[in-house]
Design brief:
The complex is a heterodimer of chains A (114) and B (110).
Chain A (H helix, E strand, L loop, with lengths): L4 E3 L2 E4 L5 E6 L6 E7 L6 E7 L2 E4 L8 E4 L6 E5 L8 E8 L8 E2 L3 E5 L1
Parallel strand pairs in A: 2-11
Antiparallel strand pairs in A: 1-3, 3-8, 4-5, 4-9, 5-6, 7-8, 9-10, 9-11
Chain B lengths: L3 E3 L4 E4 L4 E7 L6 E7 L6 E6 L3 E5 L2 E6 L4 E6 L8 E8 L6 E2 L3 E6 L1
Parallel strand pairs in B: 2-11
Antiparallel strand pairs in B: 1-3, 3-8, 4-5, 4-9, 6-7, 7-8, 9-10, 9-11
The chains are: A mainly beta (114), B mainly beta (110).
């Protein structure tokens, strides 16, 4: 069956531009998570949705970062006015339901800000 | 202090060896524990998920949780070259986010 998919897989953008990263979770999965993973580190929590409701955005670094999941399925993570320090792998995960449920990760989007 | 501590390695073992990977944590409220395997340039792949103290076995993999010591382990028996990857532990308190370790890089030498 289809796993979590993310697009684009690679994104190069100039400093100051906005970017939108997309996540398509496993069909039927209620919960969706966004993480950022630096090289040689584990994933770092950004935000989390149950259905379309954003339950926790405490991990978003600043107000340039936002996320939405308007219909409770696909989610978009948007970074406005990108900075070089935003360069990282952005990963999405989904779970059947419940925040402590098993999470399944997508392949990630590698963002490079030049 | 980090929520989760994990030795980054690298760890190198001969094929067939028993591998022991470990994480420690400080938050006594953690009740859910996961182990992920991550191949180079790939997303983390869920290996094991445990809720309580004790052991859970799945094929060549055994996850062990000791809540009294705040210590979790993943054992890999009869290690294979295909087990070469980075292994990440993750844990959470009920209803809260998962915290990940930095990952341990493992190489199994044929």
């Amino acid at each position: 069956g289809a796993g979590v998919s993310q697009s684009p897989r690679y994104k190069v953008t100039k400093r100051g531009q906005d970017v939108a990263l997309r996540c398509d979770p496993i069909s039927g999965h209620v919960s969706l998570y966004w993480y950022r993973q630096a090289l040689g580190q584990g994933p770092e929590f950004l935000t989390y949705f149950n259905y379309e409701a954003q339950q926790d955005k405490s991990g978003l670094p600043n107000d340039r970062f936002s996320a939405e999941r308007p219909e409770g399925s696909i989610s978009t993570l948007t970074i406005q006015r990108t900075e070089q320090r935003d360069s990282a792998m952005y990963r999405c995960a989904s779970s059947l339901g419940g925040r402590s449920d098993e999470q399944y990760f997508g392949p990630g989007t590698r963002l490079t800000v030049t | 202090q980090k929520e989760v501590e994990q030795d980054p390695g690298p760890l190198s073992v001969p094929e067939g060896a028993i591998v022991s990977l470990n994480c420690t944590y400080s938050n006594s409220a953690f009740q859910y524990f996961m182990w992920y395997r991550q191949y180079s340039r790939k997303g983390p792949e869920l290996l094991m998920y445990t809720y309580s103290s004790g052991n859970k076995e799945d094929g060549r993999f055994t996850a062990q949780v000791d809540k009294s010591s705040k210590y979790i382990s993943l054992f890999i028996r009869d290690s294979q070259p295909s087990d070469s990857a980075t292994y990440l532990c993750a844990m959470s308190a009920p209803g809260n986010q998962f915290y990940f370790g930095t990952g341990t890089s493992l190489t199994v030498i044929p």
